[in-house]
Write a structure and sequence with these properties.
heterodimer, A: 282 residues, mainly beta, nine-stranded antiparallel β-sheet, eight-stranded antiparallel β-sheet, globular, disordered N terminus, B: 173 residues, three-stranded antiparallel β-sheet, 2 helices, 7 strands, 32% strand
Chain lengths: 282, 173
């Protein structure tokens, strides 16, 4: 067992976290525990993350949409549960990995000055330390004049894996308040709807891809993002998502890991609507 | 219906923009706005009742069948052992618990500046307010040199389902 993990063991025993201490012991003694975990430098759960994404920008987006092919995201106990930066510094939780979509405002003054430098609504799925490395759907928002709030919706059901889940964020213009709606739904019955109330942001950027936090131990098979489209107007009484396909590749940022690339550019012969973008790790 | 398939209907655009209408291969219509060269297509939104969020496993209920199904001491024990999302401190003991309240979802939403939790108004939740150093990252920021600038808060909130103990959400002010 390496020194930071030994320190973590002592710390958890001291706290009475016998289950966690046992987990460390068991995994350290197992062949899997002795293997060299893939290492990377992607910060802590809070800062310094790595990204495998593409970004599009224009004066205004009223919403965004992508289909993500759902894969098993993995993160082992030494990264997702415990993050040790030194013998004296192990923390819980550790890292995480996700696939997701962001609708972002980088222009409104109240967003530029909020510490993040932006407001946004995001939707996706992740795996992290709790509950015991299950995968969960989530959405989150940062609204002008407010902080961040992350909504943990529920675990990704087995029948969603291997299929496509639809992620849609759209401004609801049916009321004067114009909240943003965050839809997560699959063809096999998953259907979550979040409402970002009192959100006056004007989105001018869409990102899709993978976010990674931690120092090692995460993994993700290739996931594809297809039907990459954006809303050309807010949601009206007809209750449909008016859209246009993304016209180009946007700006790809690949920290390697996560690895991100275009498999088929938008608009090319044989490509799905909005192209096919993919991520994998690590 | 809980199985919201996607339908591309491809139609309709402002007549004032003098659109050019083309025939799509699958019997739908693609309308091209010649003025802005922007296609306008449509996706049907999912219909029916969405699922109520259930969150992620967190606090183990110690009073199953009762409401709430766990106590403030259970919350404290959980936070000590499991840490706090977004916290960058090494020791959860460095975090101060300001309050633990069992309140209705509507009240919790009001305390969060109207953040909608997706629960019935009267649904009982455990609202926990913490003090410490809590840092959250945003999406990738192309304006920064490498990585996005995080935001740090001196308080944060965690919300648990008062029946299951599941973590429903968290955030900074």
């Amino acid at each position: 067992m390496d020194t930071p993990r030994a320190a973590a063991l002592v710390k958890f025993v001291a706290r009475g976290s016998i289950a966690l201490a046992l987990a460390i012991l068991l995994l350290s003694a197992s062949p899997a525990g002795s293997r060299a975990a893939p290492a990377y430098s992607c910060g802590t759960p809070s800062t310094g993350h790595c990204y495998g994404i593409t970004q599009w920008g224009r004066s205004q987006y009223f919403g965004s949409y992508t289909d993500i092919s759902m894969v098993h995201l993995q993160c082992d106990v030494f990264d997702c549960l415990i993050h040790c930066s030194s013998v004296f510094s192990c923390s819980i939780p550790g890292g995480f990995i996700d696939d997701e979509m962001w609708l972002i405002d980088r222009g409104t003054p109240a967003c530029l000055s909020n510490g993040f430098g932006s407001c946004w609504v995001e939707a996706g799925y992740w795996t992290q330390y709790s509950p015991l490395f299950s995968m969960d759907y989530f959405w989150a928002d940062v609204r002008p004049g407010s902080g961040i709030f992350v909504h943990v919706l529920g675990s990704v059901p087995d029948h969603d894996i291997g299929a496509r889940t639809h992620f849609m964020i759209v401004r609801d213009d049916r009321t004067a308040a114009r909240p943003y709606l965050s839809f997560i739904y699959s063809d096999s019955g998953t259907f979550y709807l979040g409402t970002s109330t009192a959100n006056t942001m004007t989105a001018n950027e869409i990102d899709i891809g993978q976010e990674l936090a931690g120092a090692g131990g995460a993994g993700a098979p290739v996931a594809t993002f297809t039907r990459n489209i954006w809303a050309v107007q807010g949601l009206g009484p007809e209750y449909v998502f008016w859209y246009s396909p993304q016209p180009g590749a946007g700006t790809v940022r690949s920290s390697n890991p996560p690895v991100a690339q275009w498999d088929m550019l938008p608009g090319t012969t044989g490509a799905p609507e909005g192209g096919q973008f993919s991520t994998h790790c690590c | 219906m809980r199985r919201p398939g996607i339908t591309v209907l491809c139609l309709g655009v402002l007549a004032a923009l003098a659109p050019v209408t083309l025939a799509c291969g699958s019997g739908s219509t693609l309308v091209v706005q010649t003025q802005h060269q922007t296609q306008r297509l449509q996706v049907a939104l999912p219909k029916g009742a969405p699922q109520q969020p259930v969150g992620a496993q967190a606090i183990t209920p110690t009073q199953p069948g009762r409401s709430p199904a766990f106590t403030s001491d259970d919350v404290k024990a959980y936070l000590l052992k499991s840490g706090v999302p977004g916290a960058v401190v090494d020791d959860p003991k460095a975090i101060t618990i300001l309050s633990i309240d069992f309140i209705a979802s509507k009240e919790a939403s009001a305390r969060l500046n109207g953040e909608a939790l997706g629960l019935p108004d009267g649904y009982l939740v455990c609202f926990v307010r913490l003090q410490g150093q809590f840092t959250f990252s945003g999406p990738y920021n192309p304006q920064s040199s490498e990585k996005p600038g995080p935001a740090t808060f001196t308080t944060m909130t965690e919300i648990f389902d008062a029946q299951t103990g599941n973590l429903l959400g968290y955030g900074g002010p």
